[in-house]
């Protein structure tokens, strides 16, 4: 399950190339797929070995004869309950949850031993380190010149905005307004595209496919391109109002460039004034491309979320402890808890009855979400 049609299509295309190695019966199920009824019927009968899709996979009309493995890509784009829905399609299927950015909630859960974690710390073959710079208001012209020069070399660029349309209550520039400015005034000689979350799915897909076919030089976008576009030809990303974005999102966005053999740049365009937290985020982004370092810093700045529930940021339900500062003592407490459960798994001993009552009273519903991750 992938969060966008473009990403689901990419997974399907890449796996289809491996048919000689893995002779599986594969299908793609998205809201825009043809013959959806036929695909759903075959999945229910066991006539499909591997079904790749979007949120369409968790609709009530989709059933599997014997779901053994569920893979969720870009896990931070799905809610906890959505991930639970996919897992309920089978009898406790083996579940692989993937993300290029370890979000704070997941990082915190690993401290509690609720997930088995595998990490890939090396860059994929052929990837380049992305040079990241802060662009101040007076330096915008230089940033535009860099984008223009890259397009002259046959490459492409992204310009990201946090809003779709300008609001009277906000001074943030919006994607729809600035797209016209870039097309008419800044880059009138280039092909400038626009994509945002309020567009119809077919319109978004059309613009993204044109970008993939190199029919668009500069793509002005909101964060809808955070996942789902693998275009090695894109070498520059400028993120407007970068001070308004969180660390995990900045890191995800930056991951859209540097996917090919060419040197790539990420320009963090800021507006003043900057908060102390924003300055810290920008500093981290310019100093490291390590997603694990970024995740830990994000956890320190944002909090870890509700570890077993549906709230994914903010302070956890710990009265005094801090997951970053008190890591060693929390690890010790975790080991003690595991030892207690090994010796008395049902908490039946007299000295554990109070603990058992506490768990039943306050934690019964939340334990249903432990396996979702």
Can you characterise this structure?
With 373 residues, the protein is of the alpha/beta class. The chain has three domains: 5-98, P-loop containing nucleotide triphosphate hydrolases (Rossmann fold), CATH 3.40.50.300; 130-288, 3-Layer(aba) Sandwich (Rossmann fold); 301-373, no CATH class. Helices cover 36% and strands 13% of the residues. The protein is built from twelve helices and ten strands. It has helices spanning 5-16, 36-45, 80-87, 104-111, 140-152, 175-186, 201-212, 247-254, 276-287, 291-302, 327-343, 353-362; strands at residues 26-29, 50-53, 69-72, 94-97, 130-135, 156-160, 192-195, 218-221, 234-239, 264-269. The strands form three sheets. It has a six-stranded parallel sheet, with helices on both faces. Strand 7, helix 7 and strand 8 form a beta-alpha-beta unit. Helix 4 (104-111) packs across helix 10 (291-302) and helix 9 (276-287) packs antiparallel against helix 10. The radius of gyration is 23 Å and the shape is globular.
What brief labels describe this structure?
Rossmann fold, two-stranded parallel ribbon, 10 strands, 6-stranded parallel sheet, 3 domains, 373 residues
CATH class of the largest domain: Alpha Beta
CATH homologous superfamily title of the largest domain: P-loop containing nucleotide triphosphate hydrolases
Strand proportion, as a percent range, falls in 5-15%
Task: Label the CATH architecture of the largest domain.
Answer: 3-Layer(aba) Sandwich
Fold-level CATH name of the largest domain: Rossmann fold
Query: What is the average per-residue confidence, as pLDDT, rounded to a whole number?
Result: 86
Q: What is the succession of H and E elements?
A: HEHEEHEHEHEHEHEEHEHHHH
Cα radius of gyration in angstroms = 23 Å
How many domains would you count in the coordinates? 3
Oligomer: single chain
Overall, the morphology is globular
What ranges have pLDDT less than 50 throughout 5 or more consecutive residues? none
Number of helices: 12
- Widest sheet, order of strands: 5-10-9-6-8-7
Derived structural class: alpha/beta
Helix content: 25-40%
Quote the distance from N terminus to C terminus: 15 Å
Largest sheet: 6 strands, parallel
């Amino acid at each position: 399950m992938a969060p966008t049609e473009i990403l689901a299509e990419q997974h399907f295309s890449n796996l289809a190339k491996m048919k000689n190695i893995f002779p599986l019966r594969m299908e793609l199920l998205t809201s825009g797929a043809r013959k959806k009824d036929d695909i759903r019927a075959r999945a229910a009968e066991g006539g499909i070995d591997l079904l790749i899709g979007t949120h369409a996979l968790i609709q009530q009309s989709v059933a599997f004869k014997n779901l053994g493995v569920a893979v969720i890509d870009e896990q931070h784009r799905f809610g906890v309950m959505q991930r639970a829905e996919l897992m309920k399609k089978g009898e406790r299927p083996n579940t692989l949850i993937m993300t290029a950015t370890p979000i704070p909630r997941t990082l915190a859960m690993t401290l509690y031993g609720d997930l088995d974690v595998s990490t890939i710390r090396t860059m994929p073959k052929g990837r380049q380190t992305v040079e990241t710079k802060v662009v101040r208001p007076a330096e915008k012209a230089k940033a535009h010149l860099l984008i223009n020069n890259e397009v002259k070399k046959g490459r492409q660029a992204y310009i990201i905005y946090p809003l779709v349309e300008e609001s009277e209550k906000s001074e943030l520039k919006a994607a729809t307004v600035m797209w016209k400015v870039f097309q008419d005034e800044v880059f009138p000689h280039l092909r400038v595209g626009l994509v945002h979350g309020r567009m119809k799915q077919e319109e978004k897909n059309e613009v993204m496919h044109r970008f993939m076919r190199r029919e668009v030089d500069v793509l002005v976008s909101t964060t809808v391109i955070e996942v789902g576009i693998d275009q090695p030809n894109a070498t520059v990303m400028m993120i407007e109002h970068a001070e308004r974005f969180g660390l995990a999102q900045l890191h995800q966005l930056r991951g859209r460039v540097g996917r090919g053999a060419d040197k790539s740049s990420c320009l963090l365009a800021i507006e003043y004034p900057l908060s102390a937290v924003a300055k810290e985020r920008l500093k981290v982004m310019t100093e490291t491309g390590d997603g694990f370092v970024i995740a830990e810093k994000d956890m320190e700045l944002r909090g870890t979320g509700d570890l077993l529930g549906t709230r994914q940021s903010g302070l956890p339900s710990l009265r005094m402890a801090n997951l970053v500062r008190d890591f060693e003592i929390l690890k010790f407490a975790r080991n003690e808890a595991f030892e207690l459960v090994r010796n008395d798994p049902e908490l039946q001993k007299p000295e554990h009855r109070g603990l058992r009552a506490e768990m039943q009273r306050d934690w019964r519903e939340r334990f249903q979400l432990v396996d979702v991750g």
